[in-house]
Amino acid sequence: MYDQPRPNRATPAMTFDQMLEHVRYEGAYPTRERAEAAVRTVLAALGRQVTGEERVDLAQCLPVEAALTLTAQIPDTEQLTGWSFIKDMATRTNTTPATARWDTGAVLAVVTRLAGPDLLARILRQLPGGYALLFGQAELRQPQLRAAAA
To answer: d(Cα 114, Cα 55) in Å, to the nearest integer?
Structure first.
């Protein structure tokens, strides 16, 4: 599997500086540095969860600096639910879950626009429950039918 951005990729829809400005606006961050810290933290955490072609395709949608942050991570052997993802980020960054959720929302709002609806749907199908809300989407899952007792 090839986890680094492909060399002949199309130009992303925005530069890294533009991405940071969008995240700064979404998160109401006071500085560009704070927005960059959020981008790097959230994309590193996401890089530990997204695998396969979805990981490669997402990296291609991102500016190079963001793609390298995403793909530099070794995917975890156990996928986290959306809430566990937030708790893990809070623990790793020594912040509160509320701050981790805020950062996630600001960054993933921009990532959602860059990825587009088709790729986002593929990513959400791959991840456990709770991620759709983090990406600003409705959580639409089929209810699991209980097996009838024999």
So the answer is: 14
